[in-house]
């Protein structure tokens, strides 16, 4: 049997990853593909927590730029992540994977409230836990949520699944054909060079808590499993 390198992981999915090429909303084929990949990893005995963004439905930053109150726009973004989380939960449960959604904003009719000890207990029972509604606070991204939850549940690694790039580059590879892909970086490099892997708050939180990050493409099936097995895919970002 294949031996995973990591025992407990946080999988960070962008909202755009769920939209696929349509760029908006939830693409059923994409979400089913992601659910199958998560199931593959769960079958290895790995404990998986998932943080999903909401950019395929609403972006708080966009609302703010349109003149909306920033806090209101961010709360709308948090609700978008709940919709994505419920869709992913439904796909996973159709595959027979026990799943729990925990929200940072209480909505008990929809999901459990986020309680750290309960989340860890679910993971120990091999349930997939999906953390929704960000941190519950405006001005914080879902990247920061992933870093915070990874620190709280003592995850071994954050797996950052991207839908439009297969790692970290020195520049946008779609614009600059001379962009160089990095195999390994430090969080200090990411912050100093402004590489845009995750925002500076999330990067600092990962660096301070020594949580490694693997950035890879979600579009190639089986990549989540490859990352968990320790195969050399994408870019790994380590402490200092």
UniProtKB/TrEMBL annotation:
Enzyme Commission no: 2.7.4.22
Swiss-Prot/TrEMBL keywords: Allosteric enzyme, ATP-binding, Cytoplasm, Kinase, Nucleotide-binding, Pyrimidine biosynthesis, Transferase
Oligomer and partners: Homohexamer.
Enzyme class: transferase
Species name: Parageobacillus thermantarcticus
Taxonomic placement: Bacteria, Bacillati, Bacillota, Bacilli, Bacillales
Superkingdom as given in the UniProt entry: Bacteria
Role summary: Catalyzes the reversible phosphorylation of UMP to UDP.
Name assigned to this protein: Uridylate kinase
Notes on activation and inhibition: Allosterically activated by GTP. Inhibited by UTP.
Broad class of where this protein is predominantly found: cytoplasm
GO biological process terms held by the UniProt record: 'de novo' CTP biosynthetic process; UDP biosynthetic process
Xref: SUPFAM superfamilies: Carbamate kinase-like
Chain intervals for the UniProt region annotation (Involved in allosteric activation by GTP): 20-25
Binding site for ATP: 12-15, 55, 59, 163, 169, 172
Subcellular location: Cytoplasm
Keyword Kinase (UniProt): yes
Sequence ranges assigned to domain Aspartate/glutamate/uridylate kinase in this UniProt record: 7-217
HAMAP family (UniProt xref): PyrH_B
